[in-house]
Amino acid sequence: QVQLVESGGGLVQAGGSLRLSCAASGSTVSINAMGWYRQAPGKQRELVARITRDGITNYADSVKGRFTLSRDNAKNTVYLQMNSLKPEDTAVYYCNALPYTRIPAYWGQGTQVTVSS
């Protein structure tokens, strides 16, 4: 089992920045990819960014150039630096961890990000 604890999030004006953190505990040796998804009201949950244990990252087109995902393997923690935030970035952000076996996927409890115009 893997537990994910998220921190960060909150309310920010458009153009501002926020940093999300997600720390994994438990059977972390089994984890390959970690990342963030988000879900806005009335919309499906979507991938924001993901990083493998080897440091390979992929980003949603909507956040490329604005968001940066990094990982500290020693701390089993990922950080999502979000710059130039837009109102459309408003959503609940969920940390996700995928084992090498790809199942089961682990999820954090979610943290609200609200960007005001």
Verbal overview:
With 117 residues, the protein is mainly beta. It has strands spanning 2-7, 10-13, 18-26, 31-39, 46-51, 57-59, 67-72, 77-82, 91-99, 106-107, 111-116. The strands form two sheets. Strands 2, 4, 5, 6, 9, 10 and 11 form a seven-stranded mixed β-sheet that branches. Strands 1-3-8-7 form a four-stranded antiparallel β-sheet, with no helix packed on it. A hairpin with a 4-residue loop joins strand 7 (67-72) and strand 8. The mean pLDDT is 96.
Shape: globular
Beta-strand proportion: over 45%
* Quantity of strands, as a count: 11
**What is the helix fraction of residues, given as a range?**
under 10%
Radius of gyration: 13 Å
Largest sheet: 7 strands, mixed
Poorly predicted runs: none
Instruction: Please trace the helix and strand order, writing H or E for each element.
Output: EEEEEEEEEEE
| Structural class by secondary-structure content | mainly beta
State the separation between the terminal residues, measured CA to CA: 40 Å
The number of helical runs is 0
* Average residue-wise pLDDT: 96
Describe the structure concisely for a colleague:
With 117 residues, the protein is an all-beta fold. Helix content is 0%, strand content 56%.
Write the layout of secondary structure elements.
Elements: E1 2-7, E2 10-13, E3 18-26, E4 31-39, E5 46-51, E6 57-59, E7 67-72, E8 77-82, E9 91-99, E10 106-107, E11 111-116
Q: Tags for this entry?
A:
globular; 117 residues; mainly beta; seven-stranded mixed sheet; 11 strands
